[in-house]
Amino acid sequence: MSIADDRLVAASPVGRAARAEARILVRARSAAGSPMLRAAAVLSAHAAAFAVIYVLAFALRFDGRVPAVVAASARATLPLVVGLKLLAVLATGTYRGWWRTPALADLVALVECAGLGSLAAAIALLLPSLGGPRVPRSVLVIDGLGTVGLLCGARVALRMARERYYPLLTPGRGTRALVVGAGEAGAALVRAVQGRPELGLRVVGIVDDEPRAAGRVVAGVRVLGGTDRLEALASRRRAEVVLIPTPSVPPRQVRELVDGCNAAGLRAQVVPGVDALLSGRVSVRPRDVAIEDLLGREPVRFVGASVGRFLSGKGVLVTGAAGSIGSEICRQALAFGPRRIVLLDTNENGLFYLERELRGLAPGTVIVPVVASVRDACRLRLVLDEHRPEVVFHAAAHKHVPMMEANPAAAVANNVLGTRTVVDEAIRAGVEAMVLISTDKAVNPTSVMGATKRLAELYVQSRASRSGTRLVAVRFGNVLGSNGSVVPTFQEQIRRGGPVTVTHPEMTRYFMTIPEASQLVLQAGALGRGGEIFVLDMGRPVRIVDLARDLIRLSGLSDGDIEIAYTGLRPGEKLFEELHGPGEPLDATRHPKIFVARSAPPDPEAVSATIDRLASQLDHPPEAVVSALAAALPEFRPRPARPSPREPSPAVMALTA
Question: What's the rounded Cα separation, in Å, for the pair 489 and 560?
């Protein structure tokens, strides 16, 4: 639309009515706090605008000189016309929402609403049987067209004012930003930023590596060139931040963009969930680039209906609830409306803060903190009998590999005997489902921690075949950001100025985020029939040294600023982790990213006897406990620490490329 067209619309009756409605709506939005008050204010604005457009239709039909008889008819029929149009607005619900960013489908709905109201008014006024005042047909046509223009024009005018004219009137305000990508995701991001001036951002250009895109105008913003000229383009446009829409921009390119931004003195930010942004379900919220944006793996998706059936209205017990995984399981479970969540942990401070947080998230769910150990069978029995949960998530475990190497008895007592207690008491209490959180270190274990988690898996599988409780295990790799994990350790070392300590240049690990791990646990509980070990498709393994370098870059530094020191493998550590063993082929499930590690069910009597023999050795020296653990689990191969080479081998470079 040209400037001349804008002036014609503004001078027309529809334009004047649209401006009147827009002014009333702006005042109403600032004054109305509750949804009911906002709805009343919006409907009042519609009523006033409908009245204005109806009167203007008479004035336009008679060139401003309306006969007295016709004017009397207008006054008499005004309440009927306005009332019928309001009924149409209420019936179609077009008074709700999407004032910021109306789309084509929204405008079609408005046309249908205006047509319905105008048709109802025309029928009421033209039917002779009603005996009401006569209204010229031409007035009804003008009024109908004006109503369409009013409903659509007010919203389009508001969007144009927010996205196009407001930034022109405030050229000095807002952080100047470049957007990566001229495709659909980039265009959606540009429009979303333009529609949200409160974000304090102003898009001044788009960068795209497609040569044919250069010079194009997308959502009113010009494509300046490729990302290889990022520094020059940012300097020319005085940009301070680069916005990266994910997941449309792959992690490898995100890593390159972060490097380029660091070199140019720019801040890189990502906008997650652009697929939701395109559908209008969420608004744009840029954030700094995080390490999970660089992992190169697709996130896990919920199959929400099955999880809802699994948890809705039920009692849930989470052991290890104050930990990273346990607390996130609680948060995500709340979204499905359980009647009660019992938080069980020995960490009273962690429980205190978690209970306070969860009470604010879901007032309708009963939150019960319980300070107890999974090794205390009597206490656990009392908790299960009192709260009668249908679902148990067993996240309590000792998980730190080097510490458990030095304290093998504690690992066996908590990870093996504690799991046995939880399983036995859950079966005795008639729990519907119990989910064990396991680890990839349980596959061909070389550490005490991995061996104890493997024994826990075997016990779950052995009891599943003879139990009415659905017992399953979930096995996944390292979790980003969990307590004591490598990422917080690296970040703290970077804050201190280094060095960043990496045990071995060839060490690789599978990684996932805490929310993903928790989603998998909930999903496994919904999918499991009993006895399964669920495994996530976690993509490619990540070299730990590459993770360290990425974190250094995300901190705005270069490899030369922070030293990376190799310290050698610690006792029990492996260079490469595995998600399933050679005798565990993977079977697909209904979830595209979740598999089942198929294996023959173990003999229940043999597993119980093995654990009993192991439990009898816990009072012996650590070496005797480790020997007993190796005897109990023949696949366990204890591994001492060994020094590391200085450079990664070509094989590992190819594996993680």
Answer: 19
Q: Report the range out of 29-38, 218-227, 338-347, 569-578 with the highest average pLDDT.
A: 338-347
Q: What is the CA radius of gyration of the chain?
A: 32
pLDDT tens string 337-369:
999 999 999 999 999 999 999 988 878 899 999
**CA-to-CA distance for 77 and 135, rounded, in angstroms?**
8
| 324, amino acid identity | S
Contacts of 113 (CB under 8 A, 6+ apart): 88, 89, 92, 94, 151
pTM, to two decimals: 0.65
Q: Which residues contact 625 (CB under 8 A, 6 or more apart)?
A: 408, 409, 412, 617, 618
* 142 three-class SS: helix
Beta strand 478-480 with 315-319 is: unpaired
pLDDT digits (tens, 9 = 90+) for 610-638: 999 999 999 999 999 999 999 999 989 88
The most confident of the ranges 17-31, 83-97, 162-176, 525-539 is 525-539
State the amino acid at position 289 in one-letter form: V
Q: How crowded is residue 470: how many other Cβ atoms within 10 Å of its Cβ? A: 19
Is the pLDDT assigned to residue 99 strictly greater than 90?
Answer: no
The H-or-E segment that residue 591 falls in is: none
Place of tokens 């928790």: 518
Q: What is the pLDDT of residue 2?
A: 37
Total residue length of the chain: 657
Is there a contact between 454 and 635 (Cβ–Cβ < 8 Å)? yes
Phi, psi of 591 (to 5 degrees): -90, 125
Tokens standing for residue 161:
């004012």
In the numeric block, which tokens belong to residue 239? 């940009």
pLDDT score of 455: 96
- Average pLDDT, integer, range 549-564: 80
Q: Is the Cβ–Cβ distance between 243 and 180 less than 8 Å?
A: yes
- Alpha-carbon distance of 518 to 311, in angstroms, equals 14
The whole-angstrom separation of Cα 564 and Cα 557 is 13
Q: How many CB atoms lie within 10 A of CB 356?
A: 11
Q: What is the dihedral of CA 367, 369, 370, 371, to 10 degrees?
A: 170
C-alpha 526/C-alpha 317 separation (Å) is: 15
Q: What is the 3-state secondary structure (H, E, C) of 84-98?
A: HHHHHHHHHCCCCCC
**Residue 477 burial (C-beta neighbours within 10 Å; 0-12, 13-18, 19+):** buried
| Residue type, position 48, single letter | A
The H or E element spanning position 630 is: helix 622-632
Q: What is the distance of C-alpha 132 from the center of its chain?
A: 58
Of the chain, the end-to-end C-alpha distance in Å amounts to: 50
User: In this structure, what are the phi and psi dihedrals at residue 106, rounded to the nearest 5 degrees?
Assistant: -65, -40
Task: Judge whether 180 and 186 are in contact, CB under 8 Å.
Answer: yes
Q: How confident is the model at residue 385 (pLDDT cuts 50, 70, 90)?
A: very high
Output b/e per residue, 495-530; b: 16+ Cβ within 10 A.
eeebebebbbbbbbbbbbbbbbbbbbbbbbbbbbeb
- Contacts of residue 583, Cβ cutoff 8 Å, sequence gap at least 6: 599
User: Distance between CA atoms of 514 and 480, rounded to whole angstroms?
Assistant: 6
Q: Which long-range contacts (CB under 8 A, 24 or more apart) does 163-171 make?
A: 163/191, 163/194, 163/195, 163/220, 164/194, 164/220, 166/197, 167/194, 167/197, 167/202, 170/197
Q: What are phi and psi of 496, to 5 degrees?
A: -80, -5
Predicted pLDDT of residue 606: 93
